Structure to design on (222 residues):
């Protein structure tokens, strides 16, 4: 089946690291994604990881994938107030381009 | 390179009417997918078109339909609108698969 779960809310102080967690159910997913949505906007692709990788780093972003536990995390280093947004984890089941999204994690950054 | 564009950005309709939304993908992208975003159901996949053919379809009633033109532009249509169709409709384009880029969305309000 297809299901993606995320914690709903995370609050951090500016300058700290943020870690957003996600679990998924479809073991056949080839890619896993992190998207960011700011108020009134569409989804911005932050990063993605191929299912045969354990880790991917892109500037302040680090993605960790534990395929055995079907657990994905996004770490944002030196979190800034501009990082305040909703973060969505998504998986692609084996067929086509269909994205299955989690409910989103609201990240609040306090200055 | 221009991003994904969607028109109109905002739309107000009444129950029973029909509506057509438009999406222009990034130049060179042949796949266009549509998603519905609501506070209650989150982000849900509607359908995907590739080279003018529907390649995948989500669990939405037949009132929701789409098409893709030879220039990869896509439209989606919702007939006999219901109050529950009020949502942000997002379009995403990709070249082949792994990276999907979203437009700003069309906010549909049904009165």
């Amino acid at each position: 089946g297809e299901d993606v779960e995320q914690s709903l809310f995370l609050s951090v102080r500016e300058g700290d690291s943020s870690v957003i967690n996600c679990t998924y159910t479809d073991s056949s997913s080839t890619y896993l994604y992190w998207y960011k949505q700011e108020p009134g906007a569409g989804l911005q692709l932050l990063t993605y990881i191929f299912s045969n990788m354990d880790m991917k780093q892109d500037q302040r972003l680090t993605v960790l994938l534990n395929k055995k536990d079907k657990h994905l995390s996004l770490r944002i280093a030196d979190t800034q107030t501009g990082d305040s947004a909703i973060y969505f984890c998504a998986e692609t089941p084996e067929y086509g381009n269909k994205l299955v999204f989690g409910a989103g994690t609201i990240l609040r950054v306090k200055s | 390179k221009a991003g994904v564009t969607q028109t109109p950005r905002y739309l107000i309709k009444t129950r029973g009417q029909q509506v057509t939304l438009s999406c222009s993908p990034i130049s060179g992208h042949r796949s266009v997918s549509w998603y519905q975003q609501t506070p209650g159901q989150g982000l849900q996949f509607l359908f995907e078109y590739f080279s003018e053919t529907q390649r995948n379809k989500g669990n939405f009633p037949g009132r929701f339909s789409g098409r893709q033109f030879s220039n990869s532009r896509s439209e989606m249509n919702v007939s006999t609108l219901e109050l529950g169709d009020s949502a942000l409709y997002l379009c995403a384009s990709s070249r082949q698969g792994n990276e999907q880029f979203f437009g700003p969305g069309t906010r549909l309000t049904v009165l």
Notes: Chain B touches chain A through 24 residues (CB under 8 Å). The two ends of chain B are 37 Å apart (CA to CA). The CA atoms of residues 26 and 93 of chain B lie 7 Å apart. The longest strand of chain B covers residues 42-50.
